[in-house]
Each structure stands twice: as structure tokens, then as C-alpha cells.
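Course assignment 3, question 2. Fill in each field.
Student: A.L.
Task: Predict the tertiary structure for the chain below.
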Amino acid sequence: MGAQRHEAPDAKNAAGGHMKTVIVVIAFNEEANIERCLSALLHQVLEEPFEVLVVDDGSTDRTAEIVRTMAEVHGSLHLIEHGTNQGRGAARRHGQDWARSEFIGFVDADIVVPSNWLTDLFDAIADVDGVSGIALPDGDVAVVARMSGATLRARGGSAEITGNNVLFRRTALETVGFEEKSRLGEDFRLAKRMVRAGLRLRTTGAVIVEHREAKPYRRAFLWMWESGLDASSLLFEFGAIRLPDTAALGWAAVVVVSAWLAVVGAISVFDALAVGLLATSAIDVAMVWTRFLVRPRPARWFAAVILNWPLTAAYLFGRTAGLVKCLLDLGTVFVKKTFGRSEP
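Answer field:
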């Protein structure tokens, strides 16, 4: 039986050394999706054998049980179980450390890949160190896509690769690997650190995978807030200003200035609120425009705009809170360095 339980991988538990490829699937409470994800991976059109490792990150549902049942039939399927949820970075890093193959892939448990996914990524990785496909719908609007039924627009992310379906050369991950401490944004951080190290990454539009996220709307709202918080820290970590950063900073400036004008009596509180609502709506429409096509179903596109507005607001408020936190942290460090006493 392929299933095996480890609290954390180490050298003696590592496997995949005799295989050219190991695909790591990270999962947390994915009982609704894990079987479809693994079935798609285990039936790839590929002549060479490969292994699939599931890292169950402390799930409290039947995710691990489903994997163990499938492993009784598929000897190439393996399982690592975390006793508690450790975050996406730790799950990916433990999978990376377990594998000893020439190529290491990563797939999220709510992704369903086409049967030629590995073949196409092998073709695309010929002259680079890492390559990913495009997931539809994008993770930021997955719940909106599910609820609205709007027509998806194929687009890559703001980073060089995405972690939800990606293939790396092992040498690239030995040079720059996943950080265990990153609970969110671990793929963005990895991509930026790899580029800084001179590694070559690519997202190919020739590979499209299906994103079947089952997250409820309330959880999506909280996730957008958390993503906003983390995105602001990414701005300070890497100093790279992306389009989302420009939009969030512009929104924060408009809201702060409007609030200040209302405080000093230059405009009414109603006008300040109206400016904030309009600024949020503008970013919401722009976000939906980049992810969904208006035609052939414009009514569903407008439904997506309405559904996405609260999520956009949650992200923007998260970005602003994250920005304030980062500035306070920098101020604290500055004060300690400037006025702190050195130890005797």
C-alpha cells in the first residue's frame, strides 16, 4: 500500500529517488476535491512512471482517508499527514524534501489537470527552470465564477509562476526552495527569490487547468482580507510594485485624503463615503474585467461585478491594514536602532 504517515519528512523517509518525476499535492480539508484531483494526475498520458505525494496539512475532514483508500489501488500514490495545520509553505516544503526526483511538480488539491498536463509542461520546461500553467478561474474570483457563471478570461498571474500547477527542475529547488514559514503567498515569494537567484521561470498559456474551489462565500471574504494583509508585506519584502499594489495604494490614498477632508470640514461625510464607494467600485470593475468576458453573457458579467464588490473591499481594507502594520514595524525597528541601548 502506498499510503504512509509522517509528522514531517526527513532523509530516511524521502522517496522518489528512482523516479524522474514526483508530483506533490498539498491539501487542507479538501474531501470534496481530492479524489478528482488525484484521478486526473494518476491518469496522465506519460510513458515514464511517476509518483504522486499528498501532503495533508492537518485536515479535519475525510481528505486523508480518501487518499489512503486510493493508495490501496495506486502504488505510486503516497501520503504525508501533518498533525496540525502548518500552512501552505510548510506543506510544499515537506513535499519538496520528500521527493528525490529530477523534476518536482506541485498541484493544489482543488485543481483538475488535463491528461496531457505533464507532457505539455515537460515540453515547456526545456529551456527554463520552472514552468506553470494557467488555472481557471483565478483563485481570487473562484467563488464569484461559481456563483455568477460568468465567462472566464484566460490570464496569467502577477508572478512569474503560480504554485497551484507548476513543474520545477530539482536543481532549481535546491538553489531556492519553499519557505516553511510562509502560510500564504509562498509561491510568489519563491518566484521572486528564484528570479533574484538568476533562475528562469515561465507561465505557459498552452496549459490550462480547472480550478474547482469549493470555498463558501464567507470564507472567500476572509481569505481576501488575509491575502490583502500578506500582499502588503510582499511589497515591503521585495520592493516590486505590481498593478495590484498600485491600485491598493491609490485606493488607500483616496480614502485617507477623503476622510481627512471630511474631518476638517472641506467636504461632507456623505461625500467622503461616496468617494470611497466609487474608488472601490472602480477597482472592482477593473478586477472583474481582467478575469471575465462581458460577452456572450453580459448579465452574468454584471452579476460577477456585484458579487465581487465585497471581496474587493475586503482585499483593499486588508491591504491598508497590512500597510499600516508594515510601517509600524519599520518605525519600531528604526526607533530601536536609533535610540536603543547596546548591550554591555
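Instructor remarks: The chain has two domains: 11-214, 222-339. The CA atoms of residues 115 and 219 lie 31 Å apart.
Grade: pending
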